[in-house]
Amino acid sequence: MPSTSPMPASPGSARILIVDEDKGAMKSLELAMRKEGYLVTARQSGSNALSLLEKEPFDVVLCELRMEKVDGLQILRRCRENHADTEVVLVSSQLTLESAVAAMRQGAFYCLGKPFQAEDIVRTVGDAVEKVRLKQANRRLIKQARNHLEKVP
């Protein structure tokens, strides 16, 4: 697990995209994330998720690794190309060490094998949201520092 501490990020306006072809799994994840206070959008296909990612930004994408047509790795790659701040958490009932390592090398925040405990996914998504917030805060501070330095004679 990324950490053993309670969820570090306040969900507030964190936007989560859930992608899973298994409607039951998708609804279960959606319910768990809404219960934590996240703004949740869910899609049952990788193709629909990619279309949505073209239009809307998300803080975290929680995605099944193995799907028909467009899989979790394709969604991960698109996020890395177009949404540098978005963190991607991949889940799979067929997760292997090799597939987890491949996903992490491509930039996944974390990979979880199904079935997982609700508290594990909540903690992992919370850690991912915290990382997104830290990246955004870091960028703001760098911009402020540059603006300040430009004003110094």
Task: Describe this structure in a few short sentences.
The chain has 5 helices and 5 strands, in the order E-H-E-H-E-H-E-H-E-H.
What features would you highlight for this structure?
alpha/beta; five-stranded parallel beta sheet; elongated; 153 residues; 50% helix; disordered N terminus; 5 strands
Overall average residue pLDDT? 87
- How many helices? The count is 5
Number of beta strands: 5
Proportion in β-strands: 15-25%
Q: What is the helix/strand order?
A: EHEHEHEHEH
| Main structural class | alpha/beta
Q: Label the overall shape.
A: elongated
Physical arrangement of strands within the biggest beta sheet:
2-1-3-4-5
Structural account:
There is one protein chain. This protein is α/β, with parallel strands linked by helices. Helices cover 50% and strands 16% of the residues. The chain has five helices and five strands. The chain has a five-stranded parallel beta sheet with strand order 2-1-3-4-5, with helices on both faces. Strand 1, helix 1 and strand 2 form a beta-alpha-beta unit. Helix 2 packs parallel to helix 3. The N and C termini lie far apart (48 Å).
